[in-house]
Write a structure and sequence with these properties.
Length: 130
């Protein structure tokens, strides 16, 4: 009797595993589609890096400190956003990357700012320096 029960559990556990993986894949696809829609539908702005510094931060995994550290490049960017035909000058601090990326003051970034705040924006790409 136990053999029948064990054999019956395997297809059910595979079905649950498949449903979970499928749901995760659909969720990831929806997140990527939303980001692509936002980047392609909302107005872009050019941000200028006004300050750059390297910081050592803790590496976290699942909300817990792992004891490891890494160095990241943090900078302040300045950009203009438009909302309801009004223009707002914004400044925000953002993690740009790692020191090997070579960010410096004066670099330009293509961003998509949120309409209602200066603190939310998506960095699309680093623009070539003229």
């Amino acid at each position: 009797m136990t053999e029948i029960v064990d054999k019956d559990r395997k297809p059910i556990s595979l079905a649950i595993y498949g449903a979970f993986c499928g749901s995760a894949a659909i969720f990831l696809a929806l997140c990527l589609a939303f980001w692509a829609w936002r980047v392609n539908s909302f107005p872009h702005s050019v941000a200028t890096v006004t300050s750059v510094r390297d910081e050592v931060i803790a590496v976290r995994s699942r909300g817990l400190d792992t004891g490891r550290r890494k160095t990241v490049t943090v900078g302040t960017i300045s950009f203009t956003r438009t909302h309801n035909r009004k223009t707002y000058q914004c400044e925000a601090s953002v993690e740009l990357g790692v020191p090997e990326d070579g960010y410096k003051v004066g670099d330009r970034l293509d961003i998509v700012p949120a309409a209602s705040t200066c603190q939310r924006f998506d960095i699309v790409e680093r623009l070539p320096t003229p």
